[in-house]
Amino acid sequence: MLKLLSLMVPLASAAVIHRRDANISAIASEWNSTSNSSSSLSLNRPAVHYSPEEGWMNDPNGLWYDAKEEDWHIYYQYYPDAPHWGLPLTWGHAVSKDLTVWDEQGVAFGPEFETAGAFSGSMVIDYNNTSGFFNSSTDPRQRVVAIWTLDYSGSETQQLSYSHDGGYTFTEYSDNPVLDIDSDAFRDPKVFWYQGEDSESEGNWVMTVAEADRFSVLIYSSPDLKNWTLESNFSREGYLGYNYECPGLVKVPYVKNTTYASAPGSNITSSGPLHPNSTVSFSNSSSIAWNASSVPLNITLSNSTLVDETSQLEEVGYAWVMIVSFNPGSILGGSGTEYFIGDFNGTHFEPLDKQTRFLDLGKDYYALQTFFNTPNEVDVLGIAWASNWQYANQVPTDPWRSSMSLVRNFTITEYNINSNTTALVLNSQPVLDFTSLRKNGTSYTLENLTLNSSSHEVLEFEDPTGVFEFSLEYSVNFTGIHNWVFTDLSLYFQGDKDSDEYLRLGYEANSKQFFLDRGHSNIPFVQENPFFTQRLSVSNPPSSNSSTFDVYGIVDRNIIELYFNNGTVTSTNTFFFSTGNNIGSIIVKSGVDDVYEIESLKVNQFYVD
Amino acid sequence: MLKLLSLMVPLASAAVIHRRDANISAIASEWNSTSNSSSSLSLNRPAVHYSPEEGWMNDPNGLWYDAKEEDWHIYYQYYPDAPHWGLPLTWGHAVSKDLTVWDEQGVAFGPEFETAGAFSGSMVIDYNNTSGFFNSSTDPRQRVVAIWTLDYSGSETQQLSYSHDGGYTFTEYSDNPVLDIDSDAFRDPKVFWYQGEDSESEGNWVMTVAEADRFSVLIYSSPDLKNWTLESNFSREGYLGYNYECPGLVKVPYVKNTTYASAPGSNITSSGPLHPNSTVSFSNSSSIAWNASSVPLNITLSNSTLVDETSQLEEVGYAWVMIVSFNPGSILGGSGTEYFIGDFNGTHFEPLDKQTRFLDLGKDYYALQTFFNTPNEVDVLGIAWASNWQYANQVPTDPWRSSMSLVRNFTITEYNINSNTTALVLNSQPVLDFTSLRKNGTSYTLENLTLNSSSHEVLEFEDPTGVFEFSLEYSVNFTGIHNWVFTDLSLYFQGDKDSDEYLRLGYEANSKQFFLDRGHSNIPFVQENPFFTQRLSVSNPPSSNSSTFDVYGIVDRNIIELYFNNGTVTSTNTFFFSTGNNIGSIIVKSGVDDVYEIESLKVNQFYVD
Predict the structure, then answer these.
(1) Half-sphere exposure of A442 (CA within 13 A, CB side)
(2) Of A406, A104, A131, A429, which is closest to residue A280 (Cα–Cα)?
């Protein structure tokens, strides 16, 4: 279904906007605006981003795939009793068949003491029963062991718990802790199985864990998950912030010059593993692959010359990536995530270069963790917590607080960091059951439209659900633009019930940057909380030549994920509109004449229950 | 003079603030709000931050000190014909006796062609006439040579110009360029004299220059400024952004466990050089030193154990610092500055560690350059451009655009990056003639005041000049605070003529971070430009123990420079109020009871002509 309206809008001259709320008495009202009366809350709980029905959630934990039941399991830092962080902190649990719809399971396990926290950690499948926790009554594919941090009485230690019922209930190991270094900042173990390059290698478990306020990722090895040997540390690299948290080390396929025919929304259930050093091509045939026929995005990565460091990756077909979250201290404010591309020999991680790379340039992307045991062996799937510690406890939602990011599929690619240089980057592709989501939805398209300042275009959604994807490709005529004129292409994502509330998303041609303004809301939190950065931006390099740009986005009630340049740059940000005010239209506008051509703007509004 | 008012303010309950401007017709007005009608401009030109009277300014260039005349010279990227960047781009010039009051000199030199730019560069004093440009008629202390980039017709090359009249007029070298590598992105040479560690060394000139879009700082040497040899490159380190620009390499004194009796505002005219490997102690006796008796800030750096890497610095008493600006691509948006602490052997720079450090966490601090030939040899004095390329051409000022930062004096210190770890940092101290500025000003003080939510304090300025310094020390009682309550100490810097306009500055106890909100203004640019980040924040670690914090700030009409923890963390940001609306009062308030004690808030309003 195509709906295309063209309305004339009266163009008012530039006016000083008086904010009558900003005098002393209004300032006084700000001082008192921390209450959570329901009128000041946004109840627009996301549909395809996981959130618990009630209570507080932070970091994703223990992500694993059950190959027997074909279920995806996620756990998370969970305080079920109130929508704010509190003790005892437990592990919540949810299960999905398609990484899209999640079935909440409640508390999986918690700490023994009321004033303790079962802090973040990971899960592994102990197929070969190295731990001795299992016997033949547990299918090898379901021999789940959780490795987590007990925070109690000024001490942080690493603990084990195991499950005999496929991850629904857990027993705590009687000889816990398995790691205690007499520290109050030693947390977030992520464990994986390292088989070794040598075919005769027996393999062993490897743990990365943060000595948080020393900015150290400690790397341990173990034969049995119980006895751990410190092998090395990766310390004080990149941007430090105030603390390192939630480290992770993962082998990521290197993809060169690949046409992502199916991107974004890659196939994560193709049969059989892709060979790591082959060129990855995603199948379109899977039930949850991107449906290329509805929103085709045929974007080819550049053929530019590889920089020296990539020759190593070309040969082996993968790199190791060290993920580190830091909090607070981001120059964007609060918490952030960085990563390092390098090599791992079983005991030591060595970065390939000295570049500091941030993963996701938005404000709400923290504590990324990857799944253990993806069915397609080379797929690296991960979830981050879509919030920021600066304001996470105070975001205006009720009775839950915080959601996860979408699942993303990560690859290492090279991209044009500018017109003369390529750089390696961790590429992100969102993973959802797009076929099903689009099936009963509605679609809208704009094509081949040159924008001018005297008119605008409106895509108006039928029965707004607040959940949709969009794909924008545009070209820019840089000739004759003036640096003193704000030269924008703007998309206004406007509330259906209250048009005062909108997201403004756009590009400015002088600065060659993309912007997002999430400040246009009637919710007091948005108006007043000084940590809720309203205006965000990213540099958006062209995807293939110098004048064509693209952005893909998924909007889900109160969160927007943006994927620039086919996923080489991302920005994930929450936003808060009044209860029930779903985005109902997209207004496409430019303040200048004949600078922008919309090559295509395609929108699929998802049908959700 | 002490003024202390305590007013009761009616506390309204939290209310939804309706923004009536946000419907479609108001959106339309945004599209057209790029005009510069005088009613939408802020004419609040700063008083002690340099700006040209008319026209466009960007990077500081060619900073040097004339020891004969005892004058400080600055040059800058200057387009005098309009308040926006344009060609031909020239070098503007200004002179000061005290780094506080600047005497504008107009254009020093420009390119030969109308469509060319005399892009950024530096100046040196060629005491020994290595260049051959001088004879005995020019005092050795005034043998000024400018090294700059000619940008013309898709090429960037390094050029020389020299002055026989102490830096007022220049002659271009007839055999220009002196460096041409067939590049369109080869710019911003910064040259210094390297004497070498060996007493028999003859010394030579060293240039750092950016191969911008290769993320390379090229390091050249020369005996005569004309013939340059490529020695090494410093490439792809730290955060890349989109381009490297304005590199600089400078030897910075290492200061350990020093009480800055005179900080901030350090002495830059003490007689005789301080020995580089002695402990630096700043004199209080100088005419332009910080006057400790009026606003004493006796802050002692911690005695915590040095990390390993500092032992090298302890021994030699200094480190080399590589300054790199990058644009765009900062996660805060647009342009930013980073630096690397390391060693330089005359040909190669090697960082001491792999940490990425940003210099100034605000939005408006770019293209930092240091002075050649400071009278006190160990002083490292520098100036940055106080704007951001995202919006610099569109900020609402007229008929000038952009100002410089204050001069800062830099040292390497260690600081408590968190409660368990120290890190090396480039410490900043603002340099101004504080004695003179305070002399005819007015002073205001608050002391030993526990804040509660039912009242507030007001410091009201007599005859607001818009230019003042403030020093805040506060302690926080973390016991019993709630993570779901925004637990703030807020300072509202309110306009005298229009109280709708204010800066909100404060600290939040749950996140342990400091915030600045510059969004409360009636100026359309502030309301509408999506790149003008309104809300900024920094992590503010305690200065000495776990519950006492400090911030020092200088406000100058439309710019605020914040120095946290005695200068270890800074944030520089412009702001824009309506014409003539100077800050006239500071309202001190907390939304919670008995969490904050103001140990002291001291304010000196400066008298300016």
Answers:
(1) 15
(2) A429
Please provide residue A103's backbone torsions phi and psi, each rounded to the nearest 5 degrees: -110, 110
- The residue ranges of chain B whose pLDDT is under 50 are 1-36, 258-307
B245 assigned to a ligand binding site: yes
B-chain residues within 8 Å CB-CB of A9?
A: 24-25, 27-28
Distance from the B599 Cα atom to the nearest Cα atom in chain A, whole angstroms: 21
A496 counts as catalytic: no
The answer to the question of whether A404 is labelled as a binding residue is: no
ipTM of the assembly? Answer: 0.89
Three-class SS state of B141: helix
Predicted pLDDT of residue B197: 77
Cα(B24)–Cα(B17) distance, integer angstroms = 18
What pLDDT digit, counting tens, does each position of A404-445 carry? 999 999 999 988 898 889 899 999 999 999 999 999 999 999
Interface A:B, Cβ pairs < 8 A: 325
Touching check for A439 and chain B: CB below 8 Å?
no
Q: pLDDT value at position B543?
A: 58
Residue of chain B whose Cα is closest to the Cα of A495:
B23
Q: Which chain B residues are closer than 8 Å to A350 by Cβ?
A: none
* DSSP letter, residue B463: S
Beta bridge partners of B445: B602
Query: Does residue A565 surpass a pLDDT of 90?
Result: no
CB contact under 8 A, B511 and A331: no
- pLDDT of amino acid A545: 59
Report chain A residues whose CB lies below 8 A from the CB of B515: 530-531
Task: Kindly state the greatest CA–CA separation across chain A.
Answer: 77
Alpha helices (H) along B64-219: none
How sure is the predictor about A31, in pLDDT bands with cuts at 50, 70 and 90? very low
Q: Measuring CA to CA, which residue among A548, A418, A305, A304 is closest to residue B184?
A: A418
pLDDT in tens, A111-137: 999 999 999 999 999 999 999 999 999
Name the average pLDDT for chain A. Answer: 86
Indicate whether A268 pLDDT > 60.
Answer: no
Helix (H, G, I), strand (E, B) or coil at A29: helix
Q: What is the mean pLDDT of residues A303-330?
A: 75
Q: Report whether A563 contacts A425 (CB < 8 A).
A: no
Residue B609 among known ligand-binding residues: no
C-alpha distance from A235 to closest chain B C-alpha (Å): 9
The DSSP result for A63-124, as a single string, is EEEETTTTEEEEEEEEETTSSS--SSBEEEEEEESSSSSEEEEEEEE--SSTT-EEEEEEEE
Task: Tell me whether residues B22 and A500 touch, CB distance under 8 A.
Answer: yes
Q: Are B361 and A453 a contacting pair at CB < 8 A?
A: no
Judged by CB atoms closer than 8 Å, whether chains meet at B587 and A24 is answered as yes
A455 at B interface, C-beta within 8 A: no
Annotation-wise, does B187 bind a ligand?
yes
Q: Say if residue A303's pLDDT is above 80.
A: no
Domains of chain B: 55-256+301-405 (2.115.10.20), 432-605 (2.60.120.560)
Q: Which of B5, B13, B354, B398 to mutate to test the interface with A (most CBs of A within 10 A)?
A: B354
List the catalytic residue out of B59, B98, B364, B496. B59
Q: Are A220 and A207 in contact (CB under 8 A)?
A: yes
Q: Which of chain B's residues have a Cβ under 8 Å away from the Cβ of A515?
A: 530-531
A315 marked among binding-site residues: no
CB-based contacts of A573, cutoff 8 Å, min separation 6: A362, A363, A364, A516, A518, A536, A559, A560, A562
Task: Provide the 10 A C-beta neighbour count for residue A391.
Answer: 24
Residues B531, A508: C-beta atoms closer than 8 Å:
yes
Closest CA to B344 of B236, B216, B192, B181: B192
